[in-house]
Amino acid sequence: MIKNFIKSAFRNLWKTKGYSFLNIFGLALGITVTALIFLWVQDELSYNDYFSNKKDIYVAKSKQTYDGNINVFGATPGPFAKALKKDIPGILNSGRIDWGNTKLFTVGDKKIYQSGNYVDPEILSILNPEFLAGDAKTALDNPSSIVLSESTAKRFFNDDNPVGKTIKFDNNQVYTVSAVTKDFPKNTNFRYDWLLNFKILEANKDFGYDFWGNNSIQTIVQLEPNADLNAVNAKVKNYIAEINNDKEANSENFLYPMERWRMYDRFEQGIEKDGRIKNVRLFTSIAWLVLLIACINFMNLSTARSEKRAKEVSMRKIVGAKKGSLIMQFLGESIVFAFVAGILAIGMVKLGLPTFNTMVNKELAIDFGNWQQIGFISAIILVVGIISGSYPAFFLSSFDPLTTLKGGKRKAGSSNLIRKGLVITQFTAAIILMICTSVIYLQIQFAKNRDLGFDRSQVIMTNILGDMSKHIPVIKQELKATGNVETVGLSRGSVLQVGSNTSSFEWDGKDPKSSILIGFSFVDEDFVDALSMKIMDGRTFRPNLLGDSSSVLINESMAKLIQPDGRVAGKLIKFQGEALTVAGVVKNYVYNSIYDEAEPLVLAPLALGKAYGVEAGILNIKTKPGVDFPKVLKEIEGIVKKYNPDFPFNYTFLDDDFNNYFSSEMMLQKLASLFSILAIIISCLGLLGLAAFSAEQRAREVSIRKVLGASVGRLVRMLNTEFIILVGISCLIAYPIAWWFMQDWLKGYNYHMDMPWMIFLMVAGLAIVIALFTISTQALRAATSNPTKTLRNE
């Protein structure tokens, strides 16, 4: 039976090569899209699966209430990890890990910047990396020991065993390699080039890692296999408040499972909302939509060609074939077609994966030894074959043999109605995708074009490393002397990020019971000019003015907290009891989140920061308009290396860093655009086939009209009208669905555009133009054909 199905399928494939190509290629595109999305979804949902004890690993989070807003942070005090293991039953292990550092490694002539972490030795026990060399139990016992990843070890020592060899760290300290671990896969939250003992950081008392009031470090916890999370969290909740004997604490802690880190990383008012799971759901929906469009293509093209097989079906029935066996035959043929399409799709996936991986920044691959992948693709092929062939099978097997063999035609009313319904469904799905893609793109542009409060163009940022800090005044002077640099400002970190916040600021009139979270950073007197910020009240710092080291700049949000009109230049505020003068008010600028309004912020002079162990970290170089950037970069590199010769020059453009904020949305938009285009192509393939068949069916009518004097244009309009009406109905159905879906998506951003009505009209126009172009090729061919060829047999 199966052999006959295959023979019959390939015989029909060869008879109708054009329609078969449209059918198979359309199905192959649908399966390709579904397979690519499946690989991406599988990678996302398997995040951190590398860790065999994933279900027992947690991160300690802090839930803090300020001015009625509940915020969730991943930072906790330094002593927390050790205390948890000691005092809370059910906790097997806990350790600290910093937020990551990039340091210069020097081995012989090789000087390369590498990223890694300072961790407690317990982190190795919790994450359990595979050790390729060295002793896992003692790898970080000695603070002068360093653990390397396999790729880092090969980068510096090739295939030699590096254990016992030394690495110079930031041209300063020397560490001995104690172990080498296998690289963690890309879909994990922990990836490093090197690991050092956290005690190295702890030894610097300026960092305050031994202070219970300093939330500055990550705490990773491993529970015992059968521990009750609710019971553990009940003890963790007020642990820090009890340690600090703070009965009115506005903060509580909880353990958050690794299983949810990747997918559910967004909180609102202290409650877990969603995160990347929204993208997973979105692309899963897109996959099914595109596959549905491909299946509808197959159904439509198969039923449209039904009359070509009517006599075959009738003859089979007359010689005794049952309806059930005919249904099985046509379903079998459909599955064979789907199998051929599946093979083509696998080839297309293999060819497209490099480009797709670049778009999603992953390392996806088809693994024929992975039963999940092969099982899923096989199931998709089978399901596509059954779904695509179901309606055509029942439709074809229902022909009346006597009517057919007498030359009569089956009434087309019901079949045409179903076929029209399928076309509408198909284009509705495609139009929804087009609208969604357009809204995503417009939202990204809306956020990018908002008033940032600073000018991100023409700004080059370079890290202050090694001996640079000793020569800052002369470096700034020489940079300006090149004639290509307007000004140079210093800051602790990037203008886009403020990593520190506090509720310790006080001012006259503040409610003593009110707790307000305020951002806190350090800059120099040229920072405002380097970023082209606007002073709304007062002035910037004046380093030569006596006592100005205790002056601060604040933003408008902070100024309005102090006084509703924001005119607060010259007023005093206090930080931990120390009086500070507000020198000026800077216009609100966007930091940390591009989608939120500017939170209250205090910018203190770097001279004041030195009392807290804070040094300048970034040189912000504002270049003049129209400069030759390759030339300017060489000039900057020459000056920087002149005073810091042992460190390779590194830099970033502020504009590029800003665009990186949109990496997730840009990926979303690119993928949605790609899949929308493919959905339109698949829809047009089906429309092309249906238009060709419609023109063939109406060939006699067209010929008679042409003989009677109908113009080519009128005939083309007649053949096109039916399909354009279907596309128009699709638009009307797609509008409310797309509106609801994207309105919900936009709610995920505090700063978002209003839903643009114009985009709905533009998408409708585009869909109609694409459909018109597709079907007009067939309509024009029919309208310009010689009527005598059609009518000579009448």
Describe this structure in words.
By secondary structure, this protein is an alpha+beta fold. The protein folds into 4 domains: 1-47 and 270-410, no CATH class; 99-197, no CATH class; 425-446 and 660-794, no CATH class; 459-659, no CATH class. The protein contains 25 helices and 26 strands. Strands 17, 18, 19, 20, 21, 22, 23 and 24 form an 8-stranded mixed sheet that branches. The protein has a 6-stranded mixed β-barrel with strand order 4-5-10-7-9-8. Strand 13 and strand 14 (271-274) form a beta hairpin. Helix 2 runs antiparallel to helix 12 and helix 9 (277-304) packs antiparallel against helix 14 (413-448).
Summarize the structure.
With 794 residues, the protein is an alpha+beta fold.
Helix and strand arrangement:
Layout: H1 2-15, H2 17-45, E1 57-66, E2 69-73, H3 80-87, E3 91-97, E4 101-107, E5 110-119, H4 122-127, E6 131-134, E7 145-149, H5 150-157, E8 166-169, E9 173-181, E10 194-197, H6 199-202, E11 218-223, H7 229-236, H8 239-243, E12 251-257, E13 266-268, E14 271-274, H9 277-304, H10 306-318, H11 323-360, H12 371-396, H13 401-405, H14 413-448, E15 459-463, H15 472-481, E16 485-491, E17 501-502, E18 505-507, E19 518-523, H16 527-530, E20 535-538, E21 551-555, H17 556-562, E22 572-575, E23 578-586, E24 601-605, H18 606-609, E25 618-623, H19 629-643, E26 652-653, H20 654-660, H21 663-697, H22 699-707, H23 712-746, H24 757-783, H25 787-791
Parallel strand pairs: 5-10, 7-9, 19-24, 21-23
Antiparallel strand pairs: 1-2, 1-11, 1-12, 3-11, 4-5, 4-8, 6-9, 7-10, 8-9, 13-14, 15-25, 15-26, 16-25, 17-19, 18-22, 20-23, 21-24, 22-23
Helix pairs in contact: 1-2, 1-11, 2-9, 2-11, 2-12, 2-21, 9-12, 9-14, 9-21, 11-12, 14-21, 14-23, 14-24, 21-24, 23-24
Domain MacB-like periplasmic core: 20-238, 504-638
Membrane topology: Multi-pass membrane protein
GO molecular function, one term: hydrolase activity
